[in-house]
Amino acid sequence: MARSDLLAGLDILLIEDETMVSFLIEEMLEQLGAASIRHAARLEAGLALVEEKLPAAAILDVNIAGETVFPLAEKLQAAGVPFVFITGYGRDGLHGHWAAWEVLQKPLTVQEFEQGLRRILPA
Predict the structure, then answer these.
(1) Whether the Cβ atoms of residue 25 and residue 85 lie closer than 8 Å to each other
(2) How far is the C-alpha of 62 from the C-alpha of 16, rounded, in Å?
(3) How far apart are CA 105 and CA 61, in angstroms?
């Protein structure tokens, strides 16, 4: 797979609690040129990372260790940080106003991932 410069120079936040899925997504982010990837497997850790430094963009698993990621999504939305939800349930995993948000269904290919990120990132 050829590298892309879609995420060149960007700090990306990944919230994913499944280790193997996290490794796969991190590999995809690297292929898309991410400068750095900060990862959290728990909601509280993700919130702490956002308090420490806002990312350029975020990838959020909807269900993170039995908790929904929506409190973190609210913080990112308020700060103007683009993000995409990832879930095995697709759009059915989102509720309320999040149902209209960008969502990618796991498992996904790097091409699907890149297309989803292109839809949320500023031109």
Answers:
(1) no
(2) 9
(3) 10
Sequence-distant (≥ 6) Cβ neighbours of residue 116 within 8 angstroms: 84, 102, 104, 108
**Does a cis peptide bond (omega within 30 degrees of 0) precede residue 55?**
no
Is the pTM here over 0.85, yes or no? yes
103-114 tens-digit pLDDT: 998 888 999 999
Sorted by where each starts, the structural domains of the chain and their CATH numbers stand as: 11-120 (3.40.50.2300)
Both tokens of 39, joined, read 């990862």
pLDDT tens digit string along 28-61?
999 999 999 999 999 999 999 999 999 999 999 9
DSSP assignment of the chain equals -----TTBT-EEEEE---HHHHHHHHHHHHHTTBSEEEEESSHHHHHHHHHH---SEEEEESEETTEESHHHHHHHHHHT--EEEEETTGGGG--GGGGGS-EEESS--HHHHHHHHHHHS--
